[in-house]
Fold this protein.
Amino acid sequence: GEEYERFDREIETMGVRIKDADTVKVRDDVFDEVTLIALYKLVHKKLISAIGGPISTGKEANVFYGERDGRGLAIKIYRIQTANFKAMTEYLAGDRRFSSVRGTRKGLIFAWTKKEFSNLARAHEAGIPAPEPLAFDRNILLMEFLGEDEMPYPQLRNAEVEDYGAVYREILGYVERLYREARLVHADLSEYNILYHEKPYLIDMGQAVTLDHPRASAFLVRDIKNLNRYFSRYCDVADEEEIIKTLVGT
Ligand code: ADP
Ligand code: MN
């Protein structure tokens, strides 16, 4: 409606192109007032110079393509009205960095966004191929775009892989580095949350937890099981318990 038109005018004045007419349609569903304000702030800070089309509509978040000075961005917008409010609370409560987060749905989603930013930063610092986090505001996370010509790299499940054994070992190496150096467990590792282009990249780290989370070990076992389930179709996989032992270093 009128608000959106004003918003468009304002961000266009700031030099942001609305690249895709589709965005306008999607926008009505996901861009509530909170999101518009956050987006506006990011634009104002010159962290976004173009907003492109939607890349993905997931259970909890929408991802849009964007640009900052010609460089690709993934703009991940967590929906305030998300179905997984309860599950999110559990992941947050056990994580010391966020255990004090209580209260409103909005507050929880903002904490979740910050948690993904911080998890990506830790992974990135540990040298694990993952999108570099660039900024966050409220329910919006900006990160490096992994893709070419506005198209994201394929998820592992859709990728053409030459040597599955090598990719499997590479990912196990990431999981180990994530555990030992970043001190995190991904907790939703699967062929959906790994992008592949010449090498695998780990994405989607909102739910990743620190090792002191009461369920960190259970999440680690589940991640390894997921990997083994997927890769066992294509190559030999190692024994789950052996993997965990090596990884944890006992
Ligand atoms: P969800 O919580 O909806 O599963 P994800 O973080 O897994 O969110 O992102 C969903 C999809 O959006 C990914 O499978 C990928 O196609 C795309 N995507 C997410 N982050 C990036 C990124 N940094 N670069 C390119 N594409 C991305
Ligand atoms: Mn995902």
